[in-house]
What we know:
Chain B: Keywords: Oxidoreductase. The complex is a heterodimer. Chain A is of the alpha+beta class.
Amino acid sequence: MKLSDQKPNQGDSRRDFLKKSSVITAIALTPGIAVKAAENNVDERFAELFEKIPLNLTVNNKAYQTSVEPRVTLLDYLREELHLTGTKKGCDHGQCGACTVHVDGQRVNSCLSLAVMNEGKKITTIEGLAEGDKLHPMQAAFIKHDGFQCGYCTSGQIMSAVACIREGHAGSRAEISEYMSGNICRCGAYPNIVDAIVDVKDGGATV
Amino acid sequence: MEKRMLKEDTDRVDGILKVTGRAKYFAEYELPGLTYGVLVTSTITKGKITALDTKAAENAPGVIAVVSHLNKPSAAAYEQEGGPQMKIFYTDKIFYNGQPIAMVVANTFERATHAASLVKATYAKEEFNTDFAKALKDPKAKKLQGQADYKRGIENAYKTAEVKLEERYFLPIETHNPMELHGMIADWRPNNQVTVYAKTQGVKSTQGTIANVFKIPPENIQVNSEFVGGGFGMALRTWPLEIATVMASKHIGKPVKVVITRAQMFTMVGNRPAAIQTIGLGADKDGKLTGITHRAYGETSTYENFTEGVVNMAKFMYQCDNVNTSYAIVPVDLGVPIWMRGPGEATGAFALESAIDEMAHALDMDPLDFRIKNDPETDQQKNKPFSSKNIKEAYKIGAEKIGWSNRKNKPGSLVEGQWQTGYGVSVGVFNANRGKASVKGILKADGSLLLQSATSDIGPGTGTGMTLIAHKLMKIPVDKITFELGDSSLPPAPSQGGSATLSTVGSAVNDVCEALKSTISELAIHSGMDPTANFVEVLKKNNLPAIEVTKESHSGKERDNYSMYSFSIHFVQVKVHALTGVVKVSKIVSVGDSGTIVSPKTARSQMLGGAVGGIGMALTEEAVIDHRYGRYINNNFADYHVPVNADVPEIDVNFINKPDPYINPMGAKGMGEIALIGFSAAVANAVFNATGKRIRSLPITPDKVLG
Lengths: 207, 707
């Protein structure tokens, strides 16, 4: 086979490389201990050493010192690693807002942010909004105005709604609708969501 | 805005769980040793897999297995001849583009996702067609009867009427796209004990399907589905991807979680099929209908037939002695459709209710007057009286609230600057169903009541409705009543579909409460107490910690004597921009005629949801296929437009709220479907009234308005 006919194996990771330790170059370039580790089936842990990088962040006032693969999104990190499943995956493309969280006080689609981009940052999720059993005023208003049906977009709606008021974008119903249009609700609770935001805004409570 | 009658009404019983993020949906359960499955899908539309190279995926980090037709994890029913054509991982045949052909299971989601990209399939391609309109024109393409032809009086009587019209209406594919992605967690344990966490509208149905495919007893299978992030019909069946998840768990002996992508939501879990319909209407010069003909063609797949009630409404909604309908389905090389909110009736109502408006215009009549003039006293199809029908009252309420008197019958009369205003009305109707369900009630000496049934709540507020039914009968505070659902081990109930849950399960709640009450009063008499004594005292006096009753409930003979339907009227005001063709729905008044309203707050939200779904159907939603490749080209929320907050005006929801005397003990009829059925026609009719432009092809996009 000519060299030019060989396709680069783009799918291979470091561990694939280790698994194929019979390849001469691999043996030549890989420390003996690594090859041995792969052969002894401890390659998973070894691969993790290669593939994960350290991450320090604060989620709902709790500090985490951890390490993650750089390709893990903040959303998947919250849901799958920290088991904070209140933040929802609706599209994974930043198109629906179900995954909205606050990063240093700003609303962010957590599916569009890699976990490692949040080094040193303060994340607030829906689980961190209430103070103990005392609901945040926006949570209470969503219940009062029935701002949801199935409840799946609700966490994102509430996180967005709080930010909408903080940003000063809750001046009128039309403005609220505009600034809440990044959060899709397929059950169609929009008018109730706007009612809830108006209620909280008019109530004057600190959000 | 209409001040809501409902502020003081009972909040959703699961509200706190939903606003705090504590409500757990299927993908959120932590199981020891959980693995992640990611599906590999076909990149051709029709043909056969000739080779599947899984080696690179198997070698990728964290990969536990690649499951496909090559290793066929055992599914007993699929090993037999016959049955469904789409036997996932048992067939090398490709029926549509995006069909799951393999699943990569790994120890993290990211590793499974990466490894899935390494699976390479080679195919033998075949000719295909995904274009429904093309298939319809092709005399060689298959057309299957979808429903028996119906005829009352003279066929095609419209053709000889004094005033007649015949028009064709088109609906594109719409997708349900609930906010929660579909999938499943399956945990197959030794001795064929299976636990699944599902996104389903029917836990018993999921349990039954898994039992059938794997040929294990249903009682071995525990289905949990407490919270469902929307369904709109797509979770009414157990899809191949769910069977694949169970297979994978069985294969590797570990729990497997699959959450499909938003793009896969367009291809793996059904859709509202495209439809082409012809309506013929005839009337005399006084505006009495003399003939209705409704012919419909709906899309289906090549591997499974799908039919729905597209032509039902034409048979009874209007007084007319001559009615005929036909409905055929046309297979194309796409995934099989499934009922989407309002199902076929919503498809049919767009055509019929548009045509009714067109006829009113042809007669130079107010479309509301025309409807009232042709409103039937009895159901001419079934030849029975309606169990209850307050449509004229609903017309009146809605007309007043929308300001119908501001409407001009001449289109294009209301112009303000560059905006034209129009008003439209339409009717929705759906079977008022009631099935069979069982509920267990446990009345406790601590003053609480626990109710259990294997029903579902995909969003309408099932638990809230059931709690309120019990609250009313038992006089127990709402916070002392718990309704448990979404668990296949509870007393059986049907799937949540066809607007039947409140009627069906609510009746069983009613019967359980009545039985508990009479048991308590018997106990009271027995122990020398007043028969109306408080149940807590009665239980205490008898040293009973609790009493328990299970009741099965279903309808009786009343169904034979009456025609039972729920009705809705949708009034909309639209603003159409003359230069850009943009249509904005500026005001909505919906009136529901669905018997007693059990839970006003959640009922109102259902009507809101129907109107919002209706805006999408009318103005924005269209799943577009590139027929050269057989692929969806707008399979995401940026390109497939569901309504967002800014698309929705304030919505004034009204209910007639009069009990239906025959349907069930509550007098309540379903309303999930009628909230949507007909809505799109109201918008089309309003656009006509605003502009004089009749658009018979949904969605009503600016190009059509200007074209």
